[in-house]
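Subject: Sanity check before I submit

Could someone independently write out the structure tokens for this chain? I want to compare against mine line by line before I put it in a report. The sequence has 394 residues.
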Amino acid sequence: MNEILVLGIILFFGYLGGWLISRIKVPAVTGYILVGLALGVSALHIISPEWNMKLSWLINFALILIAFTVGGELDIKKLRKMGKYIGSIVIFETLFAYIFIFVFVKISGFSLPLSLIIAALGAATAPAVTVLVLNEYNARGPVSTVLLACVGIDDALGLTLYAISASFAHGMLHGGHISIGTIILEVFLDISISIILGIIGGFLLSYIVKVVRYKLEMLTIVLGTILLVTGGLQNPIRGIHFSPLLSSMAMGFIVINYSQKKRDIFGVLENFGLPFYTIYFVLAGAKLQIKKLIQLGITAIAYIVGRISGKFTGAYIGAVIGKAPKNVRNYTGFGLISQAGIAIGLALVAANEFPELSSNIIAIALGTTIVTEILGPFMTKFAITRAGEMGKRR
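---
Independent answer below. Compare away.
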């Protein structure tokens, strides 16, 4: 085995698995994870933990691109057009999922730092699954619009919650007798510095691309700028752990709202990123230990129940506070079940960042993702069907 052969196996069989699973109307990401599961530590051992570690930089690279794309979903003009209740729904469904998961997994027996990390992983929703279902059934209406807004913005909130949770977890695990005030200060510096550098990087990229003539040059300078900014944040400085993902998201936000060439920037990344997304989903599946997931059965169930109940409760309360239409209040929660993308990526980042917690993080995040990726599309279809929005877009 060598690096080239391993990557060939991952890409070839990952794509094949995604294509096959999509034939039965299940998202391709589930196929990637299942292929990784078959090739990894729980089955064939072709992708060993050592290979997973060697290729971990590809996982970080793919997630940085995803975070940049998530920032690109936060177009201020579009968000203003979606209605005043969008903000309250997104905030409540994200925070309630975080709180409910934290309480449920903490009660089930997890430590405080681990519970904080696990809760942050479950706060976001999978954009790809929601968009796939809405496009497949030509759905259009208030519920569909809210769902699209939620999956874009709650990924951003999920990244922020992870950055905060990770900072607190580092303080509790490695900080000795550091006070709560010191931890809060470190969290503030982590978040603020990461965002400020991302904003600077976003404006820098927006300025540089004005002189770019060809698409190949565009791809080079876009990747170079993103990696230059986020690469400088990969390692802690004086004990402060920064968030490359939050910085990348801030860059995407600046580009989508202020760059004259925003379409060109996001366009060159659209096709380029797919192989890397496939690699990191397969590697994620390869890390999953089925035995560990079975051992954590009660906690895994607690996580799923906490996440689903948190999404439902938060979406409903947010809709009521925002005075949303009846259909939005009753059915939005059904379309927020799926988790993948950011959740899996953050799980892999957390596993590397907290090696002492990695087996529990991977088992919970990936094991429950398989369940939600199967259940999610059916629940989203139910939401748009009951709301009467299927076939409204021609």
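---
OP: Matches mine. For the report I'm noting this point. Residues 3-386 form a domain with the Na+/H+ antiporter like fold fold (CATH 1.20.1530.20).
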